[in-house]
Amino acid sequence: MFKKLGLIGISLVVLSGCTAAVTDNIIAQDETPIAVSDAMIAEWQTQFPNYQIKKLTLASSDGQATLVGLYFDNKTSDDLIYYIAGNGMKLAQGGIDAMLSLAEYQQDMVIFDRRGLGASDGKADVASLLADAKQQIVYVKQEIHPKHLLVHGYSLGSFVATQAIKDMSIDGLILQGVATNATDWVDARLPWYAFWPFVTVKVSPDIGALDNTDVVKNYYHGPLLIIAGGEDEMVPPQLAKALYEDSQSTDKQFVLAEHADHGEMLADAKAVAAYHHFVSVVTQQ
After folding, report:
1. Secretion signal: which residues (predicted)?
2. DSSP conformation letters of 76-140
3. Best exposed site among 16, 24, 50, 91 by fewest CB in 10 Å?
């Protein structure tokens, strides 16, 4: 038997009626890169009147990929939000929409097409996603020099964000559509297998090592904002709340966008207000 259930950021494959495997094959991948043209940037520029959009090109540290991103330069800000997108999101499909939501906060912004997706070439796996995110954070610090750096991870990007900043210095962390760890995510999202007597679920070590709880308990204790959707069917909000409760940060906030699904959280009035407050507090420190 072969059955596959897809999520934003995770999927489950059942093989031979007995074993379900969650591996880094879940990571969305394009067959060929799609270039970001000058015409595309010019079109996007019309949507961001308070920003100057600049294309970024970065050779990956392992030499196996060229990573393409965008820098949204707000002339009134010396602070920056580095956004790590969810699985399958590209600059041209979902990425610009996310930037339009974050433009509300009038900070500089950086977003990359991750390896193997959109304009970035190469082949992605968990290790390369983490290495690329760390490299991009260093690049932002060294080349853009923000006064304050906030890292925002969404869905799969939230796992990448926590692991990337575990041993790095940042000024604020925003996690949206986030879970405690990959195993809890599978258990909460796909409980059906518990009733199949001959089915076991195996989470590969690289996926299983994506443990957000470990990071917020033992590594990152800085300002933290967690945003969950009350109607999020992809990542149950109770996992985000559990992560918030496990955090050792002395400056943390949990926001439940009660009527939002996985993609609507940043349009919620409470989430917008909390984000404004978070950015204001972090950038005034």
Report:
1. 1-20
2. T-S-EEEEEPPTT-BTTBBHHHHHHHHGGG--EEEEEEPTTSTT--S---HHHHHHHHHHHHHHI
3. 16
198: left (phi over 0), alpha (psi -120 to 50) or beta: alpha
Q: In this structure, what DSSP letter does residue 53 have?
A: E
Q: If we measure between CA atoms, which residue out of 80, 145, 155, 91 comes closest to residue 117?
A: 91
Q: Which of 234, 190, 185, 187 is nearest to 210 (CA)?
A: 185
- Which class in CATH covers the domain with range 29-181+210-283? alpha beta
Contact 44, 96 (CB under 8 A): yes
> What does DSSP say about strands 51-59 and 149-154: parallel, antiparallel, or unpaired?
unpaired
The amino acid occupying position 102 is: L
Identify whether the C-beta of residue 230 lies closer than 8 Å to the C-beta of residue 254.
no
DSSP H or E run through 203? strand 200-203
Distance (Å, whole) CA 277 – CA 258: 19
| CA 15 – CA 54 distance, rounded (Å) | 46
Half-sphere exposure of 103 (CA within 13 A, CB side): 20
Backbone angles phi, psi at 242, to 5 degrees: -65, -40
List average pLDDT for each run of 10 residues in the chain, which is 285 residues long.
Answer: 34 44 69 94 98 98 98 97 96 97 98 97 94 98 98 95 96 97 78 51 72 97 98 93 97 97 96 98 95
CB contact set of 118 (below 8 Å; sequence gap of 6+): 30, 33, 34, 36, 68, 90, 91, 92, 93, 95
- Name beta bridge partners: 67: 58
